[in-house]
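hey all, quick one before standup. I had two proteins in the batch that finished overnight and I want to keep them in one place so we stop losing track of which output belongs to which input. First protein below, input sequence then structure tokens straight from the run.
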Amino acid sequence: MPDVADYPRFSEAEMASRHARVHQMMDEANVDAMLLYATGRYSDVYYLTDWPGSREAYVLFQRNAEPVVLAQLYNHIPVARLLSTVPDVRWAGANTAQSVIDLLCERGIEGRRIGLVGSIPHTQYNRIRSACPEADLVELGGKFRQLRSIRSELEIERFRHAATLTDESMEALKQALRPGVKEDELPAVLEHTYLKAGGYSGIHFMTSMPMRTPNFPVPAQYQSGRVIQKGDCLITEISGAWWGYSGQIHRTYSVGEGPTKEWQEMHAVAVDTFDAIRNLIKDGTSTREVEEVAELVHQRGYTLYDDLLHGANQYPPIIQSKSTSRREGGEMFFRENMAITIQPNVCTTDERMGLQFGETFVVRKNGCEPLHDYPREWIVCG
């Protein structure tokens, strides 16, 4: 049997604190249980169990009873039982929805008020709803995401380590970016940094183009086979991750020469907007205030394409500028120990060219604490 101590682990106190917060959330929502669904690695199941997860899984929390994990697939159960701090780990059976129903009946809560978290497949939800017609199923996903948006110091240390790996990958990219390299060869340069440190890639969005004939407004999610040439620039959005937590950084590179005047002016707007936002945010700052500050981009003759700012790992808040807002929801306030990524993606109004500049911070009582240590500048290669 592998030694659980050989894996990165959160402390017993950390896990107990998370469970206590969940129970407090349940009390505030007046629910008898919380049923959480998630898929993939490092999902919300990881937050509750210290097991990174795999395929689909449910976690049931209940008042005055121990939690239960229902997990797929069958061959994933041994590792789940090894790593999960929730001792009761069960295979979810040949039919996951039926196993959930059986568990609710076993616990005597099939007719009680149950909070739901996660994107439960409609076929599973309908089967649970049909089998438990007396249950009062209420949505708790938003409240749970808000709960998770305030990070513990142990979580922040993971973010910090992931940010360091991300910085190292950006330096590796700088060394590798030369004429003749294909764009779709660059992810291997980045991922090597994470893999040798026990991490993994979060995202590597990149777009290359000639600086004098630009043709794209944002870093692309997929890389082409285009060959890098002298006079190109490469716009980036890069995240290196380590055990459930990722850094994120945005820089622009050019090959063989510095930025042209057009690119230099756009880069300056992105940096000015970034600086204005990071200097504004502290515990208690409103998202409305940040949206107002971001109007600087529009005043300078540009617009924004991507989110202006989001919580690390895509947790709230997620906002744009006042002029480009495209999300539901009202005003939010930044709170101490939120991890956030400030990332203005400045582009021309005709979407002919754009770049992104930013990185990840932790909100503290009196300001923003940086997690990255990579130069805040345009990077010239070759």
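OK second protein, same deal, sequence then tokens:
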Amino acid sequence: MPEEKEADLKNFKEKAKEILEGKVEGVSMAGLKCEIGPGSMYKPLNKVVPIREGEAMQLEHVEGEVWLIDFWATWCPPCQAPMQHNQDMLTKRAADWGDKVKIIGVSIDQAKEKVVSHVDNKGWTSVIHYWRGESDCSEVYGVNGVPHVMLIDTKGKIAFKGHPAHRQNLEADFDALLKGEELSGKGTANEAKPAAEAEDKKEGEEEVRALDTNVCMKEIDDFKTLATDVLAKDEDMVAKAKNMPRSFCVMVFENKYTPNTDKWTGEFSNYRVCVGKKEDVDALAAFFDEKVPAGSWKKEEQYHHI
């Protein structure tokens, strides 16, 4: 549930406990919780640890600054290109942004020392790095997998939250937020309301799909095998992808139960995101079309030539 419902949820849990206690066993309300999302004010990350020196601290936003918080890990292959892109953006736009844009990496690795050596080897020193350690920030922000990023505007409001594949041009996002503009699209407060939840469905509006979780998970498993045995073994395509500031071919599966329809509905998409030289982007786009078979997912293509 959204953060603003926290008081209502607490009251519900207390009332439900009174009703159920002594009558029903094995009921857990641990899954009922509020998470901070797009449109909410940033809540400081607690007990994160600077990777080089210093004690666990609380990370407070500074008004006037735009932040990108990137939850990642050294062992996560899809996290590496976005972190390189973070470094490249800060290097490229240093004169424009000065100290008004900060990119903060929050590593979920088990050991801080691994993060230090990895960051140094890669040269990702313009990013401000922290280690999650014993912080509860993943639970507070509902980070169930990496990479996972949040954009914080100059007033401390969450402008975007989700997988980085949903944002095609982060440089433009930073520029817009510095001007006080709002973002739109998937993962923002201005995201279009799903048709199943809208009071009046507009003509031509896309239906929210009913998804079979078992089918989707089987296709995800098949995609993992394809990614390992086929995509990652094409040396030419891997080399092109490594030269790009952003290159993804990922599955995003989100499913939820809607009580009023008694159905599971949601999103299952194959995001193909490439930012780079035209010839490299076009080559990867053709490669994905050839190697990734059709499935029950929607193909979402975000190709940008630079």
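Flagging for whoever picks this up: Residues 209-305 form one domain. The chain has nine helices and eleven strands.
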